[in-house]
């Protein structure tokens, strides 16, 4: 069934005077988390100049030859560079993009692009990560209050000063799309997916179309979703945030982890066909953090176990999708279905 569209306005929440307005901000964040699972932050400590500078830094990395970027290849620790390697369970195909993922902890040993190749990159990235972590911790305090936990409950579980921290900054580069060629059926710059983390903070320059959301998931254990999508636009300086599967589970499904995707451009009058850049910050728990909601709807698991279980669910859905596509191709060609396994499924969206 073809996707349908619905006009929705995601909440725009000001973080101004956070210490004095924390109760008001908590109320607004909890309401957003309980409904669409998406919201935009304004008036944060990350300025438009900070965001623009990080996008310039990101572009310098992606402009490097693949041979240089390949010196920091993607690993199972969820760090490093990948290209056309993330396969979505919703489509069974790879996103046409490249990304570079960075963490604070020991996983980044030998995974920073060299100073010779890109002077100053590491320091600029770590400064931006620290500012984004500060904003994230404000959200964590509010969500902890909303669920009846102590203020520092989620902050301690996502302590990026620890060696086993898993929080990730991901730089993304979606490749340009040929405006004169028809877009293949079912092609997306990023297929429909939910994030696995606590909460994702997304940066995007205004005017770069494509991000769409589809609320409606009622249980973190279900991947399925409906077909009613809403485009999400960005204002300069805004941070668009979404609840991840981790917080949906940790809230006993009270807060919603919403399916989202990046649509391929189709309209030369409205869409951006050139290269598209975005930056995502995934707040992922320390591997030994204990995860269980206040109502104990789901068994307690560690951060490491939660990530592994999420990967297994993704693989199961992906394999089912690949069998469906293979069977359809076999019927069309009257040939035996292929049995090739996917190249990679990454732990973060």
UniProtKB/TrEMBL annotation:
This is Fe2OG dioxygenase domain-containing protein. InterPro entries: DIOX_N, IPNS-like_FE2OG_OXY, IPNS-like_sf, Iron_ascorbate_oxido_reductase, Oxoglu/Fe-dep_dioxygenase_dom. The keyword Cell membrane does not apply. It comes from the Eukaryota. Keywords: Iron, Metal-binding, Oxidoreductase. Belongs to the iron/ascorbate-dependent oxidoreductase family. Residues 167-285 form the Fe2OG dioxygenase domain. It comes from Neodothiora populina.
């Amino acid at each position: 069934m073809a996707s349908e569209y619905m006009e929705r306005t995601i909440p725009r929440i000001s973080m101004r005077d956070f210490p004095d307005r924390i109760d008001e901000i908590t109320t607004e964040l909890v309401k957003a988390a309980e409904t669409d699972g998406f919201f935009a932050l304004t008036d944060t400590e990350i300025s438009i100049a900070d965001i623009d500078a990080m996008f310039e830094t990101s572009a310098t990395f992606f402009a490097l030859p693949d041979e240089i970027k390949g010196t920091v290849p993607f690993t199972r620790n969820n760090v490093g560079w990948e290209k056309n390697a993330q396969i979505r369970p919703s489509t069974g195909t790879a996103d046409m993009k490249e990304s570079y993922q960075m963490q604070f902890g020991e996983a980044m040993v030998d995974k920073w692009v060299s100073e010779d190749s890109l002077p100053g990159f590491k320091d600029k990235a770590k400064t931006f990560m620290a500012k984004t972590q500060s904003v994230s911790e404000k959200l964590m305090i509010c969500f902890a209050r909303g669920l009846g936990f102590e203020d520092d409950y989620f902050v301690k579980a996502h302590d990026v000063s620890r060696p086993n921290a898993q929080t990730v900054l991901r730089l993304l580069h979606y490749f340009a799309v040929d405006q004169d060629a028809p877009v293949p059926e079912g092609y997306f710059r990023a297929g429909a997916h939910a994030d696995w983390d606590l909460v994702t903070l997304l940066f995007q320059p205004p005017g770069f179309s494509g991000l769409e959301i589809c609320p409606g998931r009622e249980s973190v254990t279900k991947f399925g979703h409906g077909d009613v999508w809403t485009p999400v636009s960005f204002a300069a300086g805004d941070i668009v945030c979404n609840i991840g599967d981790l917080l949906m589970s940790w809230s006993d499904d009270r807060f919603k982890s919403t399916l989202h995707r990046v649509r391929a451009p189709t309209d030369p009058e409205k869409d951006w066909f050139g290269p598209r850049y975005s930056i995502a910050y995934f707040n992922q728990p320390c591997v030994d953090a204990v995860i269980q909601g206040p109502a104990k709807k789901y068994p307690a698991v560690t951060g490491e176990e939660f990530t592994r279980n999420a990967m297994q669910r993704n693989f199961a859905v992906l394999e089912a999708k690949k069998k469906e596509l293979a069977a359809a191709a076999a019927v069309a060609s009257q040939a035996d279905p292929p049995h090739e396994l996917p190249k990679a499924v990454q732990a973060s969206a």
